[in-house]
Specification:
The chain is of the alpha/beta class and about 475 residues long. It has 10 helices and 15 strands. One of its GO terms (molecular function) is pyridoxal phosphate binding.
Length: about 475
């Protein structure tokens, strides 16, 4: 074993070198390697491996990370396939035509799953994750709006996008990077998600679209897409404005078809023109893979699609990234074949069952009050019950749980509810009922410890907002 003292961040007084344990140094090797510049000489592969291995060992245990949506487990066959295909570049469709064909199969499967009118003749693409997929969906909305405005002889200089104040930060980035005014509809105790309420106050002739979220990052709750579409139908009847919906289904688009098959949220609604999802969340693939599919080819303006010559072939492409791994596309196809509709249903229902069990147990604790119960995607949040204590906060509870290895973030809700702090749990594939019971035992012990304090815990640092 090689011991190191490197930290995630470079801090004042931190050592400039990785010191090797003399017992394990090979003959002729340096006993110290610089941390922040290239070493002058080579190291043996075994030494370099051990250094990196030991550094990574200091990260948290992925199975106890209840903060992330990202997949942390795949089976042995997937691991083998990953290693066999790690060298494939998905963008090079001329060199890897079969991987390109499999990519098309995957998004066509999703188009069928999401009830596209003509799934075999629509269009979609893989991305590096659902954030890139959101960017592409937003760009298509903006370009459609621009083209329509230009055709009508109207100006195109003030586009806006309407969404919940609880959107994932990638939508704020989209608006910032592509000069679109974000119009945030604030959530509240009465309207915990964007539900169409007062929507007419936010949309106008410059609105490129409305984002509806299937699984809000803060809490896991679905936004009622059909209700939002109905509100937009009424707005069109009253004003003539025909405003389309992009569904951010980063998590829920891979949950709802299997767990809530009767829920209407996808291309079954005429106003929905594009849907994204994250293959590396509840698509169950390692990071990073995302997908975006359009209702039909007309929903993706042709002038956004590039036809480039790359390594000897003509390649149509619509993406923000160029060279990127092809292995995750093959892993997604593997899982589609491996699990099928029934397998995904069983996996997602198992995760939701654990979430509902956990939320029920937490709801019974006097110190905590649920915000939602995990019956949409298997994600739920709670707050400290009003009047329970002034000695500790959910940030203190998060710190106590971290001592037992559990990562459970505490963070303020978005604007208009920013004085409300919640904690959130994400139940993923592999978080079993046994692990849930182990977590509950540690949670109850942490609350009991904090409740036994005879005075408040000193506030030692400012807690930032949590974005994931």
């Amino acid at each position: 074993m090689v011991t190191t003292n490197q930290h995630v961040k470079r801090t004042a007084g931190e050592s400039e070198a990785v010191e090797l344990n003399p017992v394990f140094v090979r003959a002729g090797e340096a006993t110290s390697l610089p941390k922040f510049r290239l070493p002058e000489a080579e190291s043996l592969p075994e030494t370099a491996y051990q250094i990196v291995h030991d550094e990574a060992m200091l990260d948290g245990n992925a199975r106890q990370n209840l903060a992330t949506f990202v997949g942390t487990w795949m089976d042995d066959q997937a691991q083998r396939l990953y290693l066999e295909t790690a060298d494939k570049n998905i963008i090079d469709k001329d060199e890897y035509p079969q991987t390109a064909a499999i990519e098309t199969r995957c998004w066509t499967m999703l188009a069928h799953l999401w009830h596209a009118p003509d799934p075999d003749h629509t269009i979609g693409t893989s991305t590096i994750g659902s954030s890139e997929a959101c960017m592409l969906g937003g760009l298509a909305l903006k370009r459609r709006w621009q083209n329509a405005r230009r055709a009508a002889g109207e100006p195109t200089d003030k586009p806006n996008l309407v969404m919940s104040s609880a959107v994932q930060v990638c939508w704020e980035k989209f608006c910032n990077y592509w000069d679109v005014e974000p119009r945030f509809v604030p959530i509240s105790e009465d309207h915990k998600v964007l539900d169409g309420h007062d929507l007419e106050s936010y949309v106008d002739q410059n609105t490129i679209g409305v984002v509806a979220i299937m699984g809000v990052t803060y809490t896991g709750m679905y936004e009622p897409v059909a209700q939002i579409a109905a509100a937009l139908d009424k707005i069109q009847a009253d004003t003539g404005l025909d405003i389309k919906i992009h569904v951010d289904g980063a998590s829920g688009a891979m949950i709802a078809p299997f767990v809530q098959p009767k829920l209407t949220w996808d291309f079954a609604l005429d106003r929905v023109v594009s849907i994204n999802t994250s293959g590396h969340k509840y698509g169950l693939v390692y990071p990073g893979i995302g997908w975006v599919v359009w209702r039909d080819r007309a929903a993706l303006p042709e002038d956004l699609i590039f036809h480039v010559s790359y390594l000897g072939g003509d390649m149509p492409t619509f993406a923000l990234n160029f060279s990127r791994p092809g292995a995750q596309v093959l892993l997604q196809y593997y899982l589609f074949l491996r699990l099928g509709h029934e397998g995904y249903r069983r996996v997602q229902e198992a995760a939701r069952d654990v979430a509902i069990y956990l939320s029920g147990e937490i709801a019974a604790m006097p110190a905590l009050e649920l915000w939602n119960d995990g019956s949409d995607i298997p994600v739920f949040a709670w707050r400290l019950r009003a009047g329970h204590t002034t000695n500790w906060t959910l940030y203190d509870l998060s710190d106590r749980l971290r001592m037992s290895g559990w990562l459970v973030p505490a963070y303020p809700m978005p604007d208009d509810l920013s004085n409300l702090t919640v904690q959130r749990i994400v139940v993923r594939n592999g978080f079993s009922r046994d692990l849930a019971d182990a977590f509950l035992a540690d949670l109850k012990a942490a609350v009991a410890y904090l409740d036994a304090l005879d005075g408040p815990i000193p506030a030692t640092r400012q807690h930032p907002g949590f974005h994931h």
